[in-house]
């Protein structure tokens, strides 16, 4: 099993650890310390040795931070985690609804805060710049220093040191040399001699390598300096790169020598303020840097034809595993013996049976009944709940395959459920369909963004006075991170959508203490076919990658428009056509029935 179910944190440990941290504040003569869920690479997921927020507070969500002062300790969490945090942290911590409440505003309401410490490797340049600006005019002074949590974490795990591995040029659709040359041209055109790349997924994409330093995300713990001649210095633990087939344009440099190498540069280096640790900014003179986006970000988001071809195949393989799982679930769940852990274990088994699974793409979310309302719920031995008749079961999961990364959510009726659940499910489904059906203009500048489309998915829910507190969709990598920017479908997604970008489409609805609903397919931006009589302008639309039946038992057809009804029947027909040849026996019988017209 990739997924485990042991309890990794406990509220009981929080008070003593908080007290130890406060003693360290006194010893270091500071009034507070910021504890982000971050490492020096600024990714969403961190290795166990960097999971300081969970160790200190007990909160295990994928986003958030704490600010510890002498008399109050705030844990800042967004809408996905407002229920989860209450069950995971002791009452010595105070949950703070972020981003509704910003750190600077919260600090202004506290008394006695003057020297606020932070680890400069765990905050980006942009984060510190924004915080300093928001605190201007107050008495709060930001103090960079070595991490105070590390000073009290006596049994901190060792850092990961597994070897990196090569990734096929055929699957990537472009060689590393070609990528580097193309980006080097852009640097020269911008008058820049080099760009520092601090995000592991960007390094992996640029060099066509992968790693295992972060569970569920096949990325290497590495940074890189791309020069305007296409050469690259790869900064990492050198033993990890020993087996890579790197060409002569790539030099491996020990991670500990990175700052010295950067300081020795005579020409300015491009730094992405949204991704570069503040510590690097500290080490370099101001005339040694120029602000600019990580040059890999947009090219990585625009998938090659080979990557899209791989994604299609990965989703068909994964779809067949999901169909076998759902057929098994429909057979076993009514017997009343299943628990959430049983469901997660079975699903991973069906994916493993493909003989192609490299990892799961994130910890499977499997919430029965009220647990489904916890947006990023992770079942463990303490929370494991029976899958009971008359309830909804929300299962959000994915796989990492060499040819693609998958992410799919299905909400399933276990026996007969109420009309409220069916109505809410149908409205969520209508929102997903709206994104699938949308067409939008392609503009070379100032194009349509995810923030422009987000409301389409919410509109059916809004009509009933309902909503959800997460984005509608995130970008997805190609055998890389399951959450990949900058593309997205949310109010905050301001990057214009372009051909080749893969996104999730996952509206939801959550009723605390009762049920949760989410339906998710992955989609890819494509050039739309022209419509007779339409304007002569280029348009974009979405191709669906995920083909797994929806739960027809939960669809209230009286709420559907004719177009929505037709879309569902067409989607099920396509699903039967694409997945049918990949399954047999009871799974094929189940699929045929599940894909029948409404």
Automatic annotation (TrEMBL):
Family matches, as SUPFAM superfamilies: Creatinase/aminopeptidase, Creatinase/prolidase N-terminal domain
List the Gene3D superfamilies hit by this protein, alphabetically. Creatinase/methionine aminopeptidase superfamily, Creatinase/prolidase N-terminal domain
Q: Which InterPro entries match?
A: Creatin/AminoP/Spt16_N, Creatinase/aminopeptidase-like, Creatinase_N, Pept_M24, Pept_M24B, Peptidase_M24_C, X-Pro_aminopeptidase_P
Q: Which residues form the Peptidase M24 C-terminal domain?
A: 539-598
Domain annotation Peptidase M24: ranges: 311-527
Name the UniProt key words of this record, in alphabetical order.
Aminopeptidase, Hydrolase, Manganese, Metal-binding, Protease
Q: Which GO terms describe its molecular function?
A: metal ion binding; metalloaminopeptidase activity
One Pfam family here = Creatinase_N_2
Please provide, in alphabetical order, the Gene Ontology terms of the cellular component aspect for this entry.
cytoplasm
- Coiled-coil regions listed in the entry: none
Q: Domain Creatinase N-terminal spans what residues? A: 17-151
| PANTHER family per UniProt | XAA-PRO AMINOPEPTIDASE 1
What protein family is recorded?
Answer: Belongs to the peptidase M24B family.
Q: What is this protein called?
A: Putative Xaa-Pro aminopeptidase
Species: Octadecabacter arcticus 238
Lineage from the top down? Bacteria, Pseudomonadati, Pseudomonadota, Alphaproteobacteria, Rhodobacterales
């Amino acid at each position: 099993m990739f997924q485990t179910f042991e309890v990794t944190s406990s509220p009981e440990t929080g008070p003593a650890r908080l007290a130890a941290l406060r003693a360290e504040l006194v010893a270091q003569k500071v009034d507070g310390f910021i504890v982000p869920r971050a490492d020096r690479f600024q990714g969403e997921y961190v290795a166990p040795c960097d999971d300081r927020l969970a160790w200190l507070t007990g909160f295990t969500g994928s986003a958030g931070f704490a600010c510890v002062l002498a008399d109050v300790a705030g844990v800042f969490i967004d809408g996905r985690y407002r229920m989860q945090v209450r069950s995971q942290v002791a009452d010595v911590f105070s949950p703070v609804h972020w981003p509704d409440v910003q750190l600077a505003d919260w600090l202004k309401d506290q008394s006695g805060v003057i020297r606020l410490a932070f680890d400069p490797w765990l905050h980006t340049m942009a984060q510190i710049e924004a915080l300093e600006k928001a605190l201007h005019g107050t008495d709060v002074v930001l103090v960079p220093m070595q991490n105070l949590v590390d000073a009290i974490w006596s049994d901190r795990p060792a850092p990961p040191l597994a070897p990196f591995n090569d990734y096929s040029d055929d699957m990537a659709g472009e060689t590393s040399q070609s990528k580097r040359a193309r980006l080097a041209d852009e640097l020269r055109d911008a008058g820049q001699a080099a760009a520092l790349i601090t995000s592991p997924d960007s390094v992996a994409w640029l060099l066509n390598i992968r790693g295992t330093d972060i569970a569920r995300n096949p990325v290497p713990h590495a940074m890189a300096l791309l020069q305007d001649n296409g050469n690259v210095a790869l900064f990492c633990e050198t033993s990890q790169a020993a087996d890579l087939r790197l060409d002569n344009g790539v030099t491996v440099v020990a991670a500990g020598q990175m700052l010295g190498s950067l300081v020795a540069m005579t020409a300015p280096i491009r730094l992405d303020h949204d991704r570069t640790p503040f510590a690097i900014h500290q080490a370099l003179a101001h005339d040694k840097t120029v602000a600019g986006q990580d040059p890999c970000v947009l090219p990585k988001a625009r998938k090659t034809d080979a990557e899209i071809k791989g994604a299609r195949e990965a989703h068909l393989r994964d779809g067949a595993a999901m169909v076998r799982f759902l057929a098994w679930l429909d057979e076993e769940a009514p017997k009343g013996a299943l628990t959430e852990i049983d469901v997660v274990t079975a699903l991973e088994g069906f994916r493993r049976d493909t003989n192609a699974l490299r990892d799961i793409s994130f910890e499977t979310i499997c919430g029965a009944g009220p647990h489904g309302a916890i947006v990023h719920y992770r079942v463990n031995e303490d929370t494991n709940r029976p899958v009971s008749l008359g309830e909804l079961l929300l299962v959000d999961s994915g796989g990492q395959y060499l040819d693609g990364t998958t992410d799919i959510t299905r909400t399933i009726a276990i026996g007969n459920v109420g009309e409220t659940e069916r109505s809410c499910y149908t409205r969520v489904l209508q929102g997903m369909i709206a994104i699938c059906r949308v067409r939008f203009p392609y503009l070379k500048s100032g194009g349509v963004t995810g923030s422009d489309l987000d409301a389409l998915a919410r509109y059916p829910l809004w009509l009933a006075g309902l909503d959800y507190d997460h984005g509608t969709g995130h970008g997805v990598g190609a055998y890389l991170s399951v959450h990949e920017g900058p593309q997205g479908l949310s109010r905050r997604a301001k990057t214009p959508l372009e051909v080749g970008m893969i996104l999730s489409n996952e509206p939801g609805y959550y009723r605390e203490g009762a049920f949760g609903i989410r339906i998710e397919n992955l989609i890819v931006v494509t050039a739309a076919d022209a419509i007779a009589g339409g304007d002569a302008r280029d348009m974009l639309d979405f191709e669906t990658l995920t083909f797994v039946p929806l739960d027809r038992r939960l669809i209230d057809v009286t709420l559907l428009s004719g177009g929505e009804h037709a879309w569902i029947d067409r989607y099920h027909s396509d699903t039967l056509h694409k997945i049918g040849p990949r399954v047999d026996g009871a799974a094929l019988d189940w699929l045929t029935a599940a894909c029948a017209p409404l």
